[in-house]
């Protein structure tokens, strides 16, 4: 197409408006994705042109992939719109009629302002997403550490409890054994003492009988009657 024709300018404006509309739609979806980013986002559905009603709800990993895909598409659209604006500027600068040139420059400025706004919004939203994702990653790491600590503490507590129970059982068994041994020794000492007393009495009676024949005769008669 020959530069300088009105059809060329209108075609460039048409391309710019189409790209601007596409950018407006995708930036809205991109902003919604970034502001709702969370590992618990499975409770929130995404219903736009990037997901259908049958698409599973997004989790953190799916959101990361969606973010990368949308960011690349937005960068490509911005690059295309920048190229169209450059062509519009080239055409406006080559226009020969001053009044026409001023009108073209006014239109070009409006398109450049829109491009600048979209570029600024994209970089701001992207930076916010990166900050939120970093925070979520940190929180997720902390949660994992806490769960691991709780899990490890639970195992250690159960092991400690079993060890204490086994220790108490052994201590009780030792105490019962010691008590049984003490009773047995006391019984043995008592029986030994009684046996010694009986021997002493018997010895004294024999000595008394040998020294006094009359007493010996009396003892024998007593023993005879007992029979």
Helix content: over 70%
- Mean of residue pLDDT values: 75
Number of helices: 4
The fraction of residues assigned to DSSP E strands is: under 5%
Largest sheet: none
The whole-angstrom Rg is 53 Å
Number-wise, the strands total 0
**Order of helix and strand elements from N to C terminus:** HHHH
Spans of at least 5 consecutive residues whose pLDDT stays below 50 are: 39-57
Distance between the termini: 154 Å
Broad structural category? mainly alpha
What is the overall shape?
A: rod-shaped
Which key terms come to mind for this protein?
227 residues; single chain; rod-shaped; 0% strand; mainly alpha; 4 helices
How does this structure look, described?
With 227 residues, the chain is mainly α. It has helices spanning 6-35, 60-94, 98-211, 213-226. It is rod-shaped and about 175 Å long. Mean pLDDT is 75; it is low at 39-57.
